[in-house]
Design goal:
687 residues, alpha+beta, five-stranded mixed β-sheet, five-stranded antiparallel β-sheet, 37% helix, elongated
Length: 687
């Protein structure tokens, strides 16, 4: 077998020829360009990833950004800010709630809305209602298992399981991972101070709309403006007043009581208490008696506290003077008799200071008769006693006043009987007698916040609209407003800040207002209101005791409404303090008496002693003698030369004269009617 030719293994390549064509060169060039491009793209991606990594590091580690509100679940509250100086106190509000909070004049929270959730289910998406209910029961301890199983088994697509659960419960249920269970954001109204000002606060319904109190009156404002609504109340004063009133109610075994503290220059209500009361968070479980606000809804005969109005009316109309005398002899009107409980300590004829100090009913009736029934009714209308008090509470009641103004009506109204007014109306009238004669509009709004609050709140409910309409009708009947220059601004005791000038209608002259202040001080220093004195505060006021009207009409014997309307300090009036006790019982300390001088007046004294420093008014015992001397008023003022005072032989308001005049007028009317009938009969005969 022949072998192929064999080439030597050490053949040198030098001799080989490599042929490179143009296509090869072009392909090699393209390949090199592609490599460069790939390296550039890879480098670009590396730079891009490096930039993204740096940005992520900055955004998540070095300088994390706060999440936007739309990125946060609606149930997650805003992180509170550090506020070591409490500069935000009273202005705290949760961004996820719709209803604004309510605070007192110092920023103390009275009402706020808390974020909650409603739990509902779609039964069509549930597999085992029994198992779902057991899981929910582990979180919702009060869940009714049988009822829940029944509802989750219904052929519906929507059923409520629980309302107003806390965010913690919502998270716990959500962690159970139950398909078909959903949440709906909501809010729940909470009153952190419980009983404090419960009747003033009112409450809201299930849809978070106000149904009582300021919650109802300012419903539109609270839902449209998230800024806290600032009231004129001071919870410190409110607490003291409630404490002292509760002690008095317990001591004298009264069935009810109320107290009011009001600024006599601005009309701001600093405290308003009605007992019994209730926890504002338990409105639906409170009794009707506890919900009843005796300060604005309760109607009571004012009793002798109204003698202040009778005296003011007589002085302002020019009918009486400080030196006139009035009979205290009992007056017989039909089968009734107007008399005093005790009259052995004063004479039959009393001067005006004695009438106020000794609180004589017949003498007050004589003053009313001197003025006349027509002027008396006009006075009451101008003072606002014919309309509901224009305060920001829909529960403000319309007073009960006589429809016909007979002689007996004139006399009984003169000493506070035969009519029924809410206590706030008496406080308002008292303030007008001491603040220079200006009739204020009582308000529950802090003075600086009032304009903004009222601008954002137009009453939609008929009750609030009715109160404002009545107030408007009342304002139309009142005289023109006093100019600001006519009312001098008093100075505080420290002289640091001038008192605000009262704004409203002038109903009493400054001169008569000054005299009435001295009369009120006299009642405390030498009259029936001695127990209201609080050393250094120069208290003035008027006691009032009225027999209570029974449920079927008629007066209940030995069952009284005891009240004291007071002012302090009387040398520079700042605040009115009113206390009323419903059906107080006698105690050994009162010696069997249930009149206001034994129960309501000492309660006012205790309140003033405690709240004075809170209101930046401190007792001035160092100058007590000088101040009392300046305000002193003699029981028997001298009669000016050439003036014939009212009194014995000059008593135009003598009921006997009035009765004779009434009979004469009635006889004249009968005679005129007889003549008309006779004339008509003759005309018929002629025809």
């Amino acid at each position: 077998m022949a072998l192929p030719p064999h080439e030597p293994e050490n053949t040198s390549p030098v001799g080989r020829t490599v042929r490179v064509t143009g296509d090869d060169l072009r392909a090699r060039t393209h390949r090199d360009q592609m490599h460069v491009r790939l390296l550039g793209v890879a480098g670009g991606f590396c730079v891009l990833f490096a930039v993204v990594a740096v940005k992520l590091t900055i955004a998540t580690v070095l300088h994390p950004m706060a999440p936007e509100k739309r990125q946060i679940a609606p149930q997650v509250p805003e992180i509170p800010k550090i506020d070591p100086k409490a500069s935000l106190a009273g202005d705290f509000s949760l961004p996820q709630v719709h209803r604004a909070s309510i605070v007192d004049r110092n920023g103390q929270t009275l009402a706020l809305s808390l974020p909650v959730a409603q739990v509902y289910a779609n039964p069509q998406e549930l597999i085992d209602p029994q198992d779902v209910t057991q899981k929910l029961k582990s979180v919702l301890k009060d869940l009714d298992e049988a009822e829940t199983v029944r509802r989750l088994s219904l052929p519906k697509q929507f059923v409520y399981i629980a309302r107003n659960i806390s965010p913690q419960q919502e998270l716990a249920i959500n962690s159970l991972g139950i398909p078909g269970i959903y949440f709906e954001p909501g809010e729940r109204r909470h009153y952190p101070l419980g009983h404090m000002a419960a009747q003033i606060m009112g409450t809201v319904d299930i849809d978070d709309h106000g149904v009582a109190g300021v919650e109802r009156y300012f419903d539109k404002r609270l839902m449209s403006d998230h800024r806290p609504l600032r009231l004129s109340l001071d919870v410190r004063v409110q607490s003291v007043v409630r404490d002292e009133l509760a002690n008095a109610m317990t001591t004298f075994q009264a069935i009810g009581a109320c107290a009011i503290v009001m600024d006599v220059h601005t009309g701001e209500i600093v405290a308003m208490v009605s007992l019994p009361d209730y926890d504002a968070n338990e409105f639906n479980h409170a009794t009707n008696d506890a919900r009843f606000n005796r300060a604005v809804t309760g109607l009571y005969e004012p009793g002798s506290t109204f003698k202040l109005q009778t005296a003011a009316m007589g002085l302002e109309t020019g009918t009486i003077h400080i030196w006139d005398r009035f009979s205290s002899v009992p007056i017989h009107v039909g089968r009734f008799k107007i008399s005093d409980m005790k009259s052995d300590h004063f004479s039959e004829w009393l001067t005006l200071p004695e009438v106020m100090a000794y609180s004589s009913n017949p003498a007050a009736a004589h003053i009313a008769l001197d003025v006349g029934g027509k002027k008396q009714a006009e006075w009451m209308r101008n003072m606002g006693f014919f309309a509901p008090v224009p305060v920001e509470l829909p529960e403000a009641a319309r007073p009960l006043v006589p429809h016909q103004w007979s002689i007996s009506t004139t006399m009984t109204v003169g000493f506070g009987h035969g009519m029924a007014e809410p206590p706030l109306a008496i406080v308002r009238g008292t303030a007008a007698t001491v603040n220079g004669g200006i009739l204020l509009k009582p308000t529950l709004l802090e003075r600086e916040d009032a304009a903004a609050a009222m601008a954002g709140n137009a009453p939609d409910n008929p009750l609030a609209q009715g109160v404002q309409t009545a107030a408007l009708e009342q304002a139309v009947a009142q005289p023109k407003p006093a100019a600001a220059a006519e009312t001098p601004t008093a100075q505080t005791d420290t002289g640091e800040e001038p008192l605000p000038a009262p704004e409203g209608m002038r109903v009493i002259s400054e001169k008569n207002s000054s005299l009435l202040r001295r009369l009120l001080r006299l009642d405390v220093t030498s009259g029936t209101g001695r127990t209201a004195e609080s050393p250094g505060y120069f208290v003035g006021g008027k006691t009032g005791t009225a027999e209570k009207i029974g449920p079927h009409g008629g007066y209940l014997k030995h069952v009284n409404i005891s009240a004291f309307t007071g002012i302090f300090p009387m040398n520079t009036p700042r605040y009115a303090v009113y206390v009323m006790l419903d059906s107080p019982k006698p105690t050994p300390q009162t010696h069997g008496w249930t009149t206001a001088g034994w129960n309501a007046a000492p309660t006012v004294s205790k309140i003033i002693s405690r709240i004075g420093p809170m209101l930046q008014i401190f007792p001035d015992t160092a100058h007590a003698a000088e101040i009392d001397a300046a305000m002193a008023l003699p029981m028997h003022p001298p009669v000016p030369r050439g003036v014939r005072p009212l009194g014995p032989g000059n008593d135009p308001g003598d009921p006997r004269k009035a009765e004779a005049a009434r009979k004469a007028e009635k006889a004249a009317e009968k005679q005129k009617l007889a003549e008309l009938k006779k004339q008509h009969g003759s005309e018929v005969m002629d025809e």
